[in-house]
Structure formats: structure tokens, C-alpha cells
Sequence to fold (636 residues):
Amino acid sequence: MIFDYFLLSFKSIRKRKLRSWLTVIGIFIGIAAVVSLISLGQGLQTAIDEQFQQLGKDKIIIQPITLGPPGSVTSKSLILTSKDLKFIENINGVEWAIGYLVKSDQVQFKDEKKVEFIIGMNPSDLTTNLELQGTKIIEGRSLKNGDKFKVVVGYNHGVDKKIWNRGIKVGDSVEIEGYKFKVVGRFDKTSNPLEDGYLFVPKDTLKEVLNTGDEESQIVVKVQQGYDVKIVADAIKEKLRRFRGEKENQETFQVSTSEQILESFNNIFGIIQTVLAGIAAISLLVGGIGIMNTMYTSVLERTRDIGIMKSIGAKNSDILVIFLIESGFLGLIGGAIGVGIGYVIGKGVEYAAVNYLGTTLLRAVFPLYLTVGSLAFSFFVGSIAGLLPAIRASKLKPVDALRYE
Amino acid sequence: MEKRKIIEIKDVWKIYQLDAVEYPALRGANLDVYRGEFLAIMGASGSGKSTMLNSVGALDVPTKGQVLLEGIDISTLDESELSQVRGRKIGFVFQAFNLINSLSALENVMLPMTFQNIQRSIKIEKATRLLNLVGLGDRLNNTPGELSGGERQRVAIARSLANDPEVILADEPTGNLDSKTGKEILELLKRLQKEQGKTLIMVTHDLNIAKQADRIAQLSDGKVIKISNKI
Fold:
């Protein structure tokens, strides 16, 4: 019987092609928005989770409180120094601590000049860092102890027309502040296009060349196995504060565990996704009202048909079901098209991200629940929107309905 | 043969509320209908013919009085019970045919059975048989828009028989047809009434049609004023 009702609804939708399509568009815009946004959000979140997995949960990051990226501290009193690094290394529970120097400065290769991020690291730390991030050297070698004026470049430096007109090769030289640095190696592509543009040089050489004095832009700590990361982080915060002679809650540095950073990322994501979901909900609401409008018109148009059906034995509940299926159908069709378009948009953004932005962070993930949920939800929206018109249709008196012209 | 009553109309009043004005369409009508007979209801427009037919057909509930269909008082039934009565015991044939335009002839005839939860294969088989019976075996898949008036009324007649009702109610069934087609439709209805032993109640204002009935009930001002047997 339900099959026959589906058939009835389908025929009636087909009869009003244009209006049905317009109604369906109202729904699929909303569903397409939801599907593409959630798929990209999910993809981004998965990517970031993976990044943190590589970094590991046992890391603590200490950096000066700044508004910009690491290395943007100007006031001398705020910076972290090698003394802080040494002090942190000796805190109980710390397996090792690495200090980076992050600077952006002009780099010259042949006739071209570009401002790039330059990372100063102890050569042995760079190797540790490589293992940490799972990044490989694809050309040449990493930095080694005793290197001076040597540089390992990020992936993009070796690609023609990406940063430089002709990509840098191992054995070439670049100039920083008038000093020649010999390129000894090149990293493989990472998921972060920013990182693919870094230049890695020995920290001491960078300090010398830039005349920075004693400075660490960021210190990364690995916690010894068996120690609680949170407790070690708290200990670092308290001891370093006393070491630097600062008051509680007025520290000029911040200590965060990798988990805390992940959490704050996730919080931001949560907010973004809530806002997006809100926008999508509004568009679905509008779509639902569109369905309701269509169904009211449909009830009016088919008043006579309703009278006929009642005169040949249709119960109120039969009429109700027929109209509910019809509006649910409209919703479902909109949902199916919306899922399809959302899929295309999501994959399109992923494609654009990979090919034009060079990042693999933005990728579209389509969990089953997203597809099934969207379809079920659009059917639900359609049915709810159709409920009032359907009730109205079912309550029509047969004699009045038959007389309707 | 003993005449058994199938329908009893007892002092039935039907008052319509038109804006602030009360308009009584039936004012204490009385009528008995016997099983298997062909009864014509005649009267001027506004005499209450259609209202009476709608009451008998459970399309409308009287304001006052009783309509007994096989001994059951229609005015005591709730809406879903009324639907059951319309679906199982009554077959309607209207002046304006009242087919569903988006459905084919076959689907129109199947529809009353759909509302009685009858299996699809049985519905198709029976609807095909009924359309053959009314002479439309070759127009099964045509929609009403593709059929002539006479053909449409044949579909409507086939539909009225779908659930094997006891009673066929026809409200001016030839009113929208030319006289030749009208005659054919009337013959078809009469044949079905005879062959299948149905009770046929037909509202008409055409005396030539009414004369073919077993009895004629004449309505005036919402009352049955005269019942005459076949001459």
C-alpha cells in the first residue's frame, strides 16, 4: 500500500515539474552547504589530529607571549634565552629541550630576492625534529655538527616557479645578509605549505649573521616516559617564572602541552563549525518553508482530488500519509542532490587547496553518517514542512472538497 | 420476491450554514430503498436531490434524522468509519466524472482498492477485468485527458464497482454527455444493475431517464412528495 502511495506522490510531483524543482532547490542549497562544510571541517580536523599525532602527546612548547608568529618579539626583556633553555633542560622529567630561532629575512638566490622564514637550529636538533615530524630529506643531507653557513631548504625552494624562477639545487648558494650559505640538502613535501618554504641553518650562524644576541624563539620539550605531561608543564611554568623573577599570572612566556594546543585548535573548530551549522540551519529552515508553501498550494490545487479520494474510501489518515510522503519526497530529492553537490564542492575545494595553495591540510572527508544523516534530515525537514498542509488536506470535508473548482 | 430494505431515510434534515443564513436543503425527508432496485430521484434544482444522495453515500452527515444503510445509522459513525462505508458499500458515479487526472484509467480503477489494502496484483487483475466489462479494455493506460466524456464516465463506472459495493449512487451521470453517449451510459448502468444485482440510485432531472427506473421518488423543498412505481 505504501508503495502505491509513493507512486501517487511521485506522479503528482512529476506533474508539477517546475514548482517541484524550485522547491527542491531551496532544500539542496542548504544540504550542499552542510555537506561541503562539514566534510571540509572533518578533513581539516583529521589532518590536524594527524599532525599532532606525529608531534606526539609528550611535547611541551614554551614561547614568549606574543601576538604574532614565533620570533616576532621586539622587547629584549620578553625573549627566551639559552639560559632559559639550559634551565629547562635540567628540570625533572624533561628528556630533552630544543630551542629554535625563527626569523624572517631577505634571502637572495642568483638575481632574485625574497623574504622567507629562516629557522636557526642546532644541527643535531634538526635531525631530531626530522624524526619527530616524519619529514625526509629527498636531496643531499641534513645539517651536521660543525656546519656553518650551510642551509637545508624546504621542498618548495627546489620547485621551479614556486618561490624561485629556477628551483634551488643542492650545491647552489643563497645569500642572507650578505653572507653566502651553501645548500646541502632539501626536505620532502610536508602537509604545511608554509613549512615547505622554510630555510634551516645552524642556529649559531644565524645568530651571528643577524646579530640577534642570545635568543630562543621557541623551546620544545620532550617529557621523559613515566612522567605526567601536565605536571611537568606546570613545573616548568613555575620554576621558569621564579628563574626569570616574574610574578605569578604575569609571566612573559607561555607553556602549553601539545594536547592543550590541540584542544584550543579543536575549540576554535568547534566555534567555526557551530557558526557554519547555524548558517546551514537557517538555509534549511528557509528551504523547509519553501516546501510548506508548495504543499499548501498543492493542497489547494488538489482539493477536488482529495474529495474524490475520500468519496472512494480514502480515510483521513490515507490523505495525510499521501501528502506527507509527497513533501518528504521533495525534501529527500533535495537532500540527495544536495549531498551530491556538497560532495563536488568539498572535493573541488580539496583539489584547489592541493593544486593552488599546495596544502594537504584541507581535504574533504565524507563519513557515512554525514551522507545518511543529511538524507534522513532532509526527508525529515520535508515531512515536517508538509505536516500542516497535510493535516489541512486530510480534514477537508468530502462534499466541500468535491464542490471545489 | 420479498422486498428487503437496504436503505432507510427517516425524517432527515440537512441544514447548511451559508454565512449567517441557515439554508435547509432537506426538511424531514423519508424514503426506503429496496435491495436490487433501480430508483430514480427527481426534482427541480435546489429540491435537495444531491444532498439526499450525499447523505445516503456517507459523504455528508444529516443534521437531524437517521440514514440507515443495511441497518447501520450513518449519522452515528466517525470519519474513518464513514470512509469505510464509502469505500466498501457504496460506488459513486458523478456528473463531472471525478477521475484523478494524473492517473491512468487502470490506476483510477485501482485506487478504491488501494484504500482497502488490496494486493497490487489482484488490483491490476480486477481493474483490467472491470475496464473490459465497461468496454475500455484497450484504453487501460490512457489518462482521463486522453479519453472522451463517455469513456471517462465508463472509467468512473468501472471504478464504482472496484470494491463490489451493494449500492451504486449516480448523480446526473449523463448530465455532461450528448444524448447518444448518455443513452449508452444509462444502458451500461442498467445492465450492471441487472446482471450484478446492484442497487442503483440515480439523481436526474430528465424524465425520459427516470422512466426507465423501477421507481421514481420526487423531491420538492427538501421532502419526498411522491413515489411512483414503474408505469
Summary: The mean pLDDT of chain A is 85. Residues 1 and 251 of chain A are 73 Å apart (CA to CA). The beta strands of chain A are 59-64, 94-109, 112-121, 137-140, 150-153, 173-176, 179-187, 199-202, 218-223, 253-257. Chain A is about 55% helix and 15% strand.
